[in-house]
Structure to design on (524 residues):
C-alpha cells in the first residue's frame, strides 16, 4: 500500500512536469502544444546520446540536454508559433500535432525503433521506511519537481522578467504597447516549456526505457493532468499529476494493468463531469 | 518635439487616416478631439509603433521613428496610456507599475524611486499596492494605467480617452494630476478625448479629427468657443 503510494507519486511527478511545461507555453500564448510528449521523448534521447552513446558523465549529459531542449523550444516557437500567429486555433493545434509526428519520425531515423535505457543520475541504497522502499531515483524525481516548482515561482513572481512574462500572458497587445519585448518573453516561455518536458524525459527513461513512440501517451497525460488541475493553474497541474500517478498505480494493482492508459481518460471525464472547470479552475473574475 | 507629417494608415484596404499632420512641442498639452471612429486611437497606435503608416513621416526629437520598434519608441520617451486602461488583471498594482519599466534598464533603485513618485501622484494606488488589477475601481484602474505609463520616464505621455466611463469627480481629479505633472516636470501630453470640454480647458492647442482628416486646429480656448466645436463635441 505505502509502496504503491510512493510509486504513484513518482510517476505522478513526471506527469506534473509534462503539464508544467505545457502550461508554461499555454499560459503565455494560449496554444496547447500537442507535441509536448514528443519533446519529452527528444529530451530522453538527447540524454541517451550524451550519457550512453558518447559516455559523458550523466550530470553533464543532463546539462547538455537541458540546454539543447531550451534551444528546441525556441526553434519550435519560430516554426510553429510565429508563422501562425492570429490564425484559427485549430490550425495551430494541428501544426503542433504534425510537429509531434515529425519529431517521432526523426527520432526513428536517428535512434532507431529499439527501446534504450538511460542510467539515473543518482545511485545508492534505497531508503526504507516501515517496509516501503524509496529508490534514489524516486527521491531525485521528487526533489527535481520541488526545485522546478520553486524556480518557476521565483522566476515568475520575484523577478522583473517574470512579471513581464505574466503580463505577456495576460494581455499580449497591451504588453507590446507598454514596451515589453514580447518576442523575448515568449521565447523564454517556449524554451522553459520544452526544457521541462526534456527533464521529464530524462527522469522517465531510467524507469520505462526510451523509444521514439514513448511521447504520445505521456503528452496526452500531461494534457489530461492540466485539465484536471483547471487548465492554466500550476499548483492544480502538480496536484492533478500526482493524483493521476496514484490512480494509475493503484488501478494497475487492484483492477487491471491492461487498462493503465485508460485510467487517465476515465479520471478526466469523471473530473470534468463533477467540476466542469477542473478541480482548481480559476475564478472567472481572474480571467477577464 | 513630435512631428506627425502627412501620415496615412489603413486596416486592410480601408484607409482610416488620410494624411494627417500635427505637432506636439516640449512641455505642451495638446488635445486631439474627434467622434467615435474618427481615427484617434489609430493615430496614437501609429505614433507608438503598434501600426505602420502606409506613407508619411513621424519624427521625434529630430529622428524619424516610423520604422522604429515599439520598445525603442517607449525607451526614447513616448508613453502610451491605452483606451479602456488595459491594466494587467492578474498582476498586483505594484507589478502593473513594474511592467511600465520594461523598456528601461532594470535598475532596482531607480525603479523604487519612480514607484515613490507615482504613489505621491496617486496615493490611492499605494493603499492598493498588493491588490490585483481586476479588483480596482474604474478610477483606480485609470490612475494605475497612467502610473504605468509614467514608469517608463516619458517626455511625451499619450492618453487615449482617460475620462471614458469615469464619474465627473474622478475625471476632474485625474485631469488635475495630469496638469500638475505637466507644470511641475514639463511632461508633454497628447490628450485624446471624445468629450472635449475638459480637454480643451487643460490643453494649449487642439486638433479636431473627423473620419481620418484633421478639419480644425488652433488655440484650445479659441476652439472651445467655436460654434462648430460647440455643436459637435461640447453638446451644443
Ligand atoms: N483593428 C482594426 N481593424 C479594422 N478596422 C479598425 C480596427 N481598429 C479600428 N478600425 C476602424 O478604424 C476607424 C478608426 O478607429 P479608431 O482609431 O479606433 O477611432 P477612434 O479612436 O477615434 O474612435 C474606425 O472606423 C474603426 O472601425
Ligand atoms: Mg479610440
Amino acid at each position: 500500500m505505502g509502496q504503491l503510494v510512493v510509486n504513484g507519486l513518482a510517476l505522478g511527478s513526471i506527469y506534473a512536469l509534462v503539464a508544467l511545461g505545457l502550461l508554461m507555453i499555454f499560459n503565455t500564448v494560449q496554444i496547447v502544444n500537442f507535441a509536448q510528449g514528443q519533446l519529452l521523448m527528444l529530451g530522453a534521447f538527447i540524454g541517451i546520446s550524451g550519457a550512453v552513446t558518447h559516455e559523458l558523465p550523466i550530470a553533464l549529459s543532463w546539462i547538455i540536454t537541458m540546454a539543447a531542449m531550451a534551444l528546441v523550444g525556441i526553434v519550435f516557437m519560430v516554426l510553429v508559433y510565429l508563422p501562425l500567429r492570429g490564425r484559427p486555433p485549430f490550425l495551430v493545434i494541428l501544426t503542433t500535432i504534425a510537429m509531434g509526428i515529425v519529431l517521432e519520425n526523426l527520432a526513428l531515423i536517428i535512434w532507431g525503433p529499439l527501446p534504450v535505457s538511460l542510467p539515473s543520475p543518482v545511485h545508492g541504497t534505497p531508503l526504507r521506511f516501515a517496509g516501503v522502499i524509496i529508490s534514489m531515483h524516486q527521491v531525485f524525481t521528487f526533489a527535481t519537481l520541488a526545485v522546478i516548482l520553486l524556480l518557476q515561482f521565483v522566476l515568475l513572481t520575484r523577478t522583473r522578467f517574470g512579471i513581464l512574462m505574466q503580463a505577456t500572458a495576460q494581455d499580449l497587445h497591451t504588453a507590446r504597447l507598454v514596451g515589453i519585448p514580447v518576442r523575448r518573453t515568449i521565447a523564454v516561455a517556449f524554451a522553459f516549456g520544452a526544457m521541462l518536458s526534456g527533464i521529464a524525459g530524462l527522469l522517465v527513461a531510467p524507469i520505462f526505457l526510451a523509444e521514439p513512440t514513448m511521447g504520445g501517451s505521456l503528452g496526452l497525460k500531461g494534457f489530461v493532468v492540466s485539465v484536471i488541475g483547471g487548465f492554466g493553474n500550476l499548483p492544480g497541474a502538480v496536484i492533478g499529476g500526482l493524483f493521476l500517478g496514484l490512480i494509475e498505480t493503484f488501478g494497475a494493482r487492484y483492477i487491471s494493468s491492461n487498462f493503465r492508459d485508460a485510467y487517465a481518460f476515465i479520471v478526466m471525464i469523471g473530473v470534468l463531469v463533477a467540476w466542469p472547470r477542473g478541480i482548481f479552475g480559476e475564478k472567472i473574475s481572474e480571467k477577464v | 518635439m513630435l512631428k506627425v507629417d502627412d501620415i496615412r494608415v489603413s486596416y486592410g484596404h480601408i484607409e482610416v487616416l488620410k494624411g494627417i499632420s500635427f505637432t506636439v512641442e516640449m512641455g505642451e498639452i495638446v488635445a486631439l478631439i474627434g467622434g467615435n471612429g474618427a481615427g484617434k486611437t489609430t493615430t496614437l497606435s501609429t505614433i507608438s509603433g503598434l501600426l505602420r503608416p502606409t506613407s508619411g513621416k513621424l519624427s521625434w526629437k529630430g529622428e524619424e521613428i516610423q520604422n522604429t520598434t515599439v520598445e525603442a519608441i517607449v525607451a526614447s520617451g513616448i508613453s502610451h496610456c491605452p483606451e479602456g486602461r488595459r491594466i494587467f488583471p492578474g498582476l498586483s498594482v505594484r507589478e502593473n507599475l513594474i511592467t511600465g519599466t520594461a523598456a528601461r534598464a532594470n535598475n532596482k533603485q531607480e525603479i523604487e524611486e519612480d514607484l515613490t513618485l507615482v504613489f505621491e501622484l496617486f496615493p490611492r494606488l499605494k493603499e492598493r499596492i498588493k491588490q490585483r488589477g481586476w479588483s480596482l475601481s474604474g478610477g483606480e484602474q485609470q490612475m494605475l494605467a497612467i502610473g504605468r505609463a509614467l514608469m517608463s520616464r516619458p517626455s511625451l505621455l499619450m492618453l487615449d480617452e482617460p475620462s471614458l466611463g469615469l464619474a465627473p469627480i474622478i475625471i476632474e481629479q485625474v485631469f488635475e494630476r495630469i496638469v500638475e505633472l505637466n507644470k511641475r516636470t514639463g511632461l508633454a501630453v497628447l490628450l485624446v478625448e471624445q468629450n472635449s470640454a475638459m480637454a480643451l480647458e487643460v490643453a494649449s492647442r487642439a486638433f479636431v479629427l473627423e473620419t481620418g482628416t484633421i478639419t480644425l486646429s488652433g488655440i484650445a480656448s479659441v476652439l472651445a468657443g467655436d460654434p462648430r466645436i460647440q455643436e459637435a463635441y461640447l453638446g451644443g
